[in-house]
Design brief:
- There is one protein chain.
- The protein has 448 residues and is an alpha/beta fold.
- Helices cover 41% and strands 16% of the residues.
- It has 16 helices and 15 strands.
- The two termini are 18 Å apart.
- Keywords: Carbohydrate metabolism, Cellulose degradation, Glycosidase, Hydrolase, Polysaccharide degradation.
- It catalyses: Hydrolysis of terminal, non-reducing beta-D-glucosyl residues with release of beta-D-glucose.
- Substrate binds at residues 22, 123, 167, 295, 398, 405-406.
Length: 448
């Protein structure tokens, strides 16, 4: 392992990541309002096994214990998200000081344990009250988001120096408004481009506000995939081009070039009445870093029945995770080099990377060799990227804890720490122990 440790720069940020609705629970406590995920998860048939985030990992009550566990493992960076309805139960107007106090205490606890916070403002839990006003279809939501962001910057900005506006706006747009498998559960392709634009506008407004008041770094996190054609046939090359526009450049282009990819017009035609003068300049403001969530590449073949005119192909010899996703670490290197040359130079942080596997508790331990191997392969791929000139500054394992996996409920486990949901016992998996050893070796080598 030592040879791998040597391949990363001294100040590389290693961490773990979580999201508010997936771990916190306490959905009705201390003045928190309802989110769209509360409503969606309580709608029969929406979540596997009828699971909800009502309790989840009970992190709201076990925060200090969880932070202490991070510290014991030698984790020095933690990415978490803030629950908007904890701060503004109605999405705007009267703020809830008890909600702010929780994140204030979490921040202090992290710093006390020498763990640097990386804060995500939006990880999908929109206040339900705003959804009832149209949610992200309504342009006003972008401005409510700015006001919420300013409130959080004001409360935590003296101690938090690294911020992410949005996590995976593609998922909010597509899974939430086209496929209907995520909250708010809409199947309205005709609104998708408006939703995406308002999400990006809210990002731009938050960045602008932070520049006026903050001294740290701010970026956005996108879920991205290298897209490979299944063959060299012309139709598969077209599928590759369209799929790349639908999954990657739809959000990369406006953030970095102030335009939307033309190929998107073939997938989701639109009139641009919702784009006001100055919007794209606001969206395109310089960022301090780009957050990248990477899990797997996409290999595609032409399929006119799919919205992006492409179907995913899994090769027979490819190993897959329990999500059915191919394991291909080289895809991470390919993706990062592409971002660097097409949109860079921009500092990159891997804000999520990890794998779900079927975990079995044996004598109080979880021997998750496949997850450990997955992580180690991706660290190697990351080192390859850095050696080829990509300025990668950090890496966060998804996830610190097993948690509520959205529409799949508690059926999939991504954590390096196992959670027994009946007792809330935490058990560090072998992958977590391996990560801990790797981190200690890294810090020892670099004498950080």
């Amino acid at each position: 392992m030592t040879s791998l440790v040597k391949r990363f720069p001294r100040h590389f940020a290693w961490g773990v990541a979580t999201a508010s609705y997936q771990i916190e629970g306490a959905v009705n406590e201390d003045g928190r309002g309802a989110s769209i995920w509360d409503v969606f998860s309580h709608t029969p048939g929406k979540i596997l096994h009828g699971d909800t985030g009502d309790i989840a990992c009970d992190h709201y009550h076990r925060m200090r214990e969880d932070v202490n566990l991070m510290s014991q493992l030698g984790i020095s960076n933690y990415r978490f998200s803030i629950s908007w309805p904890r701060i503004f139960p109605m999405g705007y107007g009267q703020k809830n000081s008890r909600g702010l106090d929780f994140y204030d205490q979490l921040t202090d606890q992290l710093l006390q344990e020498n763990i640097e916070p990386l804060v995500t403002l939006y990880h999908w839990d929109l206040p339900q009250a705003l959804q009832e006003k149209g949610g992200w279809i309504n342009r006003d939501t972008a401005f409510y988001f700015r006001d919420y962001a300013v409130t959080v910057f004001d409360k935590l900005g003296d101690r938090v120096h690294n911020w992410i506006t949005h996590n995976e706006p593609w998922v909010t747009t597509v899974a939430g408004h086209i496929q209907g498998r995520h909250a708010p559960g809409l199947k309205q392709p005709n609104v998708a481009r408006k939703v995406a634009h308002h999400l990006l506008l809210s990002h731009g407004l938050a960045v602008e506000s932070y520049r006026d008041m903050g001294k740290g770094r701010i970026g956005i996190t996108l879920n991205l995939h290298p897209v490979y054609p299944a063959s060299s046939r012309e139709e598969d090359l077209t599928a590759q081009q369209l799929h790349d526009a639908f999954h990657n450049t739809w959000f990369l282009d406006p953030v970095f070039t102030g335009t939307y990819p033309e190929e998107l017009d073939e997938i989701l035609p639109f009139d641009n009445d919702f784009i006001a003068e100055g919007d794209l300049n606001l969206i395109q403001q310089p960022l301090d870093f780009l957050g990248v969530n990477y899990y797997a590449p996409h290999r595609v073949r032409w399929n006119p029945d799919e919205i992006s005119h492409a179907s995913l192909v899994i090769l027979p010899e490819e190993p897959i995770t329990s999500m059915g996703w191919p394991v291909d670490a080289k895809g991470l290197t390919d993706l990062l080099i592409r971002i660097h040359y097409d949109y860079g130079p921009i500092p990159i942080i891997i804000t999520e990377n990890g794998a779900a596997y079927e975990d079995v508790v044996e004598d109080g331990q979880i021997h998750d060799a496949l997850r450990q191997h997955y992580l180690e392969m991706h660290w190697d791929a990351l080192a390859n990227s850095i050696e080829q000139g990509v300025p990668v500054h950090g890496y966060y394992v998804w996830s610190f804890l097993d948690n509520f996996e959205w529409a799949l409920g508690y059926s999939k486990r991504f954590g390096i720490v196992y959670v027994d949901y009946l007792t809330q016992q935490r058990i560090v998996k072998d992958s977590g122990l391996a990560y801990s050893r790797f981190l200690r070796e890294f810090y020892e080598y670099h004498h950080v």
